[in-house]
Amino acid sequence: MAGTTDVPESDLDNGLVGWEGQDDPEMPLNFPQQRKWLLLSLISAITLISPLASSMFAPGVIFMDEDFHNTNTTISAFTVSIFVMGYAVGPLFLSPLSEIYGRRPVLGCANAFFTLWQIGCALAPNISSLIVFRFFAGIGGSGCLTIGGGVISDLFRREQRGMATAVYSLGPLLGPVIGPICGGFLAQRAGWRWVFWLLLIAAAIIAIGVEILNKETNPKVLIRRKTRNLRKLLNRPELKSVYEQAAEQSKASVLLHGLVRPLKLLFRSPIVFLLSLYMAFVYGLLYLLFTTITGVFQGTYNWEPDICGLAYVGVGLGFFLGLGTVAKISDATVVRMTKANNDVFEPEMRLPACVFFAIFVPITFFWYGWAAEYKVHWIVPIIGLIPFGFGMIGIFMPIQTYIIDSFPEYAASGIAALTTSRSLFGALLPLAAPSMYAKLGLGWGNSLLGFVAIAMIPFPAIIYRFGGRIRKNHPVKLD
């Protein structure tokens, strides 16, 4: 079958410890379906709360500005986007740690770190400390985004990864949309600090649930534990894991290699670099919208801050439409193309749909920008946000699944490369929004972004056409 993967088996005569056959029930790929989806649901739950925290504060910024007597609009935007800067830093450490020590302990520590910094944000005495605390919260919140790709690679075979990625991607895409809707009402009625108290309560409940119910899925870590136990049980200190047959390295050396691995993928693989650049640009556009929608609907349509959150519904509707479409076509397309390719699977089979979805992204910026510029009825710019949500989810999920399929052993590092690059854009691009819109206006300012989005549409098409040849002829050495 196209998705079957041969797992390395034990060969104790030669001193190698592996799995007890291809159907070993301890192998994560062979877990019962209910357990697989439970484990994915656990990580998806915290993956909803973390991105929720990234944007939930956005409608409350004006109240924070009043409290701290801030009049600098760039600083205001930075208090929102700095959280995403933490997403750029955290994966570089958390990804290699999860491949060395396992998914479960690293995710648990990251969740705890994310949760505790919500207290700092809620009690921040000034705007500088709030920015610092938001940054640290973002580092902890990046754990679920980074480790999720590794968990999907651990648990699911190729023909199921499209659906698994669709479920897992709900959080990172819907969280930033739901956040401002809740945050607007909460900030106006209870104060902006209560945004962080509510995040603390939700994050703590889910983090505790994840810690209780979660199970290790990294096959290398599981076999390493098995090897350690058999060495003692059989009194055979020479036994080695099938995944680690080379001479053992120090933990510092292993960690250093792990830290460099996402950067190697990003800068030595032209495929990963191009796809990361494209995803980063689209992600930056998302946060640019998130940091400006409130101002647009307050200034242009005279909406109250609590109602402004409802303007994000357009993006959310687009996400739901895109999610349903991708979940339906992704795995089915891969199975069909694999059969047509003499049952030979190529990761590039994930990408054709990206070109179709990419066409929808620029539509929003022309539609939404000029509707707001000419103060057309408020429903028109909100509807104009739907194509962006639809196109974005149709770009994100296939690219993430492609990286997982291309580097299954280092899926966490591959997702870390994507997360780091896109988070830099998500944190920095919104900072240019106030001055850009001040000079160009909403119409031409958004149109400029739309033209750039059009220019980048061919990226996934180029990777689909030439990616397989580049990947095979220029492999990236990651060990």
From TrEMBL:
Gene Ontology biological process terms from the UniProt entry: export across plasma membrane; xenobiotic transport
Residue ranges annotated for the Major facilitator superfamily (MFS) profile domain, each copy included: 39-473
Any Pfam family hit: MFS_1
GO MF annotation list: transmembrane transporter activity
InterPro entries: MFS (IPR011701), MFS_dom (IPR020846), MFS_trans_sf (IPR036259), Sugar_transporter_CS (IPR005829)
Coiled-coil blocks: none
Compartment(s) where it occurs, according to its Swiss-Prot or TrEMBL record: Membrane
Signal peptide coordinates: none
Keywords from the UniProt entry: Membrane, Transmembrane, Transmembrane helix
Protein name: Major facilitator superfamily (MFS) profile domain-containing protein
Species for this entry: Oidiodendron maius (strain Zn)
